[in-house]
Design goal:
The complex is a heterodimer of chains A (419) and B (323). Chain A has 419 residues and is mainly alpha-helical. Chain A has 19 helices and 5 strands. In chain A, α9 crosses α10, α12 packs across α15 and α13 runs antiparallel to α14. The longest helix of chain A is centred in the C-terminal third of the chain and has 24 residues. The relative contact order of chain A is 0.08. The N terminus of chain A is likely disordered. The longest helix of chain B has 17 residues. Chain B is built from 16 helices and 5 strands. The chains are: A mainly alpha (419), B alpha/beta (323).
């Protein structure tokens, strides 16, 4: 009963391919001592099962995906002569279903071989679909005739909180990167495949302690041999890296992988692409146009998603951006505004607005119209009048910062007139 | 010095219909109408900027309400105050007051640039116009009648203000110069008219600024015109069409973020400028601008859309085939 919890769609797509067997299954450890990381937890699980007597609390293994919770249960069971009966999130787990499974496990357990009940993904027990399942489980945990191991990802989930009173909680931690690397090298050796040290390091870092992800990602590298970096969803894979790689990618397809791998918010992605394009001074007009059309289209898509709340439209976003960015060959740029420009926006825009609003009111005109057509003539007129700008500002209750900003504005007007 | 006495455009704002520059047909109709104020309907004035709409509205208010006109007139610029709260809280409250002095036929709400009201606001306004028509009259101005919803149009007498003629504007500017004892060159006055496109307020302001700079000659007039943000938009479009995208975008960012030029105005000005450039294919330009305009209406990120628009113009200008 194979169960691939925590696999994202892109993983399964990439990994099944021509390769047939997934490394993460092929090299799933059969014995506890073959595993890496979590030494104390492994020893504890072994002792618990070895000394198991009816009435002992079941184990509740809690830890992130891919660190070996299910593997530990199977390995311990295999080593101590138990066969595993597994119920996971793919099985319906209503009160009725659970009770049926329990009855069948319990009724036969005395006659046949030793059984271990593995309840995987208990934090996936949901209210409506698995109605009553959680309560039933909590009730029957303590008097089970067979040893039971429960697994869950989220220690803060309601399910874990509810069950932890009736079970012995064991924390399973992520696999340290040096151990993950060791295991990966072992697998590569057995497969007769080589990967550069740099790629190995990247794979291990990006998997962030998820041993299954290490193996899956490594396997996905091998058939193409062209990818230089990762495309697993990873918060550590920054927007800058994703955009840099997308711009370097030869095809939109490749660029898409990098962009999909990056976990950044959709608005940030669009702004990142936009900023990158406008910061590049070397683009040919046609190339720039293609890129900006793509990004402007993506920005429009976001707007449509937000106004219609049709989030399924989001699936087109990365593709539009990939098409815009691939092959540009330009470096990522975060913020294209020079610092001086920002200071000006901060300091002067408010003051200019205050001035324009005031004069627009006094001359019965909209401030928009005033700003576009009358700002510079009016400033000149006031500055050449008796008392100048200073007196005028004082009379109109405009404070010193506004006066300063207006003087800067006037200076730049005069400078531009001079040429 | 108060703005009103400082700025010639205010100082020489006409205070009777007879002093008005041009708009003779409109003035004749209005003069007949205000003889019987109790029969005056709501008014809608349409026409280009600086053609006298607001001036005429204020003259009517002053003529009908006499010395109390400021107290009984609510002047709002819809472009600056266009939310529905303004309609509900300010206009409705003002319009519903029934207190009147002897000789005051009604209160007046002067709503400038009514076409920048959202259609929600306009809809809210339409009931107010009927409900309080016994005590309040509305005068709404707009560049185009099409910006005002049909139900409001049908509640108003519509007056169309035409673009001011060159002769009238030139004569008016020259008379101001004489009153202000400013020397001018005839060619410079003609240039002011050309550059301001018949917008009298803009023409007067440019004349006065040129006079502040020195002599009113062609060079100073051009300098003043060149210093406006409106002419920065033109510079931006020209740079883009010449292929200098980077420079054009710098101007765009400056206009958007330092001066707060709205994307709507930006498109309006780009439209005026781009369509006057013969180098750009007018058909593709129209299709393209219609698309970006619609995107901004939909609320797409303005900076990104306008930047893409500049890239489109740059590509068109450099002869790149645009599919």
């Amino acid at each position: 009963m194979a169960c691939f919890s925590g696999y994202s769609d892109s993983f399964s797509r990439v990994c099944w391919g021509e390769m047939g067997v997934m490394w993460s299954e092929k090299y799933r450890p059969k014995r506890l001592e073959e595993m890496v990381g979590n030494e104390d937890a492994r020893a504890m699980i072994f002792d618990w099962l070895l000394n198991w007597k009816r009435g002992m609390k079941p184990l509740l293994l809690v830890g992130p995906p891919g660190v070996g919770k299910t593997t530990m249960a199977y390995a311990a069971a295999g080593q101590l002569g138990y066969s595993v009966v597994e119920l996971n999130a793919s099985d319906q787990r209503t009160k009725g279903e659970l009770s049926k499974s329990f009855t069948s496990v319990l009724s036969t357990s005395l006659l046949e071989e030793n059984r271990l009940l593995l309840l995987d993904e208990v934090d996936g027990l949901y209210g409506r679909a698995d109605f009553g399942g959680l309560e039933y489980l909590a009730e029957h945990l303590e008097d089970l005739p067979v040893p039971a191991i429960l697994c869950a990802n989220d220690p803060e989930s309601d399910q874990v909180k509810k069950l932890s009173k009736r079970a012995r909680l064991v924390r399973i931690k992520t696999v340290p990167s040096r151990l993950a690397e060791l295991y990966l090298r072992l697998v590569l050796e057995k497969e007769g495949v080589t990967l550069s040290d740099e790629n190995i390091a990247r794979i291990v870092t990006s998997a962030a302690g998820d041993m299954r992800a290490v193996l899956n990602t490594a396997q996905s590298f091998v058939p193409t041999g062209t990818l230089t970096t990762l495309y697993s969803k990873n918060p550590n894979y920054s927007l800058a890296e994703a955009i840099n790689e997308a711009c370097r990618a030869g095809t939109a397809e490749d660029a898409l992988r990098y962009l999909q791998a990056c976990d950044a918010d959709q608005d940030e992605k669009v702004m990142g692409c936009y900023n990158t394009i406008v910061s590049a001074s070397s683009l040919q007009p046609a190339v720039r146009l293609r890129a900006l059309r793509g990004v402007a289209g993506a920005a429009l898509l976001i707007r449509r998603i937000k106004s219609t709340q049709q989030w399924r439209l989001l699936r087109y976003l990365d593709r539009m951006l990939a098409d815009a960015m691939h092959g540009l060959g330009i470096p990522y740029a975060g913020d294209p505004l020079p610092f001086t420009a920002k200071v000006r926006i901060w300091n002067d825009s408010k003051s200019i607005k205050a001035f324009c609003n005031q004069l627009a009111r006094e001359t019965n005109i909209s401030s928009r119209e005033f700003t576009a057509k009358h700002l510079s003539p009016t400033l000149l007129i006031i500055s050449r009048s008796e008392g100048g700008l200073e007196t005028w500002c004082a009379l109109h209750n405009l404070d010193q910062p506004v006066l300063n900003a207006l003087q800067r504005e006037l200076k730049s007007i005069i400078a531009s007139i001079g040429k | 010095m108060s703005t009103e006495s400082l700025m010639w455009s205010e100082k020489y704002r006409p205070w009777s219909l007879g002093e008005l520059v041009d708009q003779k047909d409109t003035v004749a109709r209005l003069q007949a109408m205000i003889k019987k104020p109790e029969e005056m309907p709501h008014l809608l004035f349409t026409g280009p900027p600086g053609s006298g709409k607001t001036t005429v509205a204020m003259i009517i208010a002053k003529t009908l309400l006499d010395e109390y006109w400021r107290d009984f007139t609510l002047i709002l610029n819809a472009s600056d105050e266009r939310g529905i709260d303004v309609i509900r809280e300010r206009i409705k409250v003002f319009a519903s007051h029934t207190d009147r002095r002897v000789g005051i036929p009604f209160r007046i709400v002067l709503l400038d640039e009514g076409d920048s009201l959202t259609s929600d606001s306009q809809t809210a306004l339409r009931r107010i116009m009927e409900e309080f028509s016994l005590v309040t009259r509305f005068i709404i101005t707009a560049n185009y009648a099409s910006g005002i919803i049909e139900p409001i149009q049908s509640r108003c007498a519509i007056f169309r203000f035409s673009r001011l003629s060159k002769d009238d504007v030139v004569a008016h500017l020259e008379s101001i110069c004489r009153k202000e004892k400013v020397k001018f060159e005839a060619s410079a006055i003609a240039l002011v008219y050309e550059l301001s496109g018949g917008d009298l307020r803009q023409a007067i302001n440019q004349l006065q600024a040129a006079a502040a700079l020195g002599p009113v000659d062609d060079q100073n007039i051009k300098r003043i015109y060149g210093s406006t943000k409106r002419s920065s938009v033109k510079e931006m479009v020209q740079l883009a069409a010449k292929g200098d995208f980077t420079k054009a975008r710098e101007i765009l960012v400056d206009l958007l973020f330092v001066y707060g030029i709205s994307e709507r105005d930006m498109l309006k000005y780009i439209f005026e400028d781009a369509f006057s450039m013969k180098a750009l294919d007018q058909g593709s330009l129209a299709r393209m601008m219609a698309e970006y305009d619609y995107r901004l209406i939909q609320g797409a990120h303005p900076e990104i859309q306008l930047t893409a628009l500049l890239a489109e113009i740059a590509a068109m200008g450099s002869g790149v085939k645009v599919q």
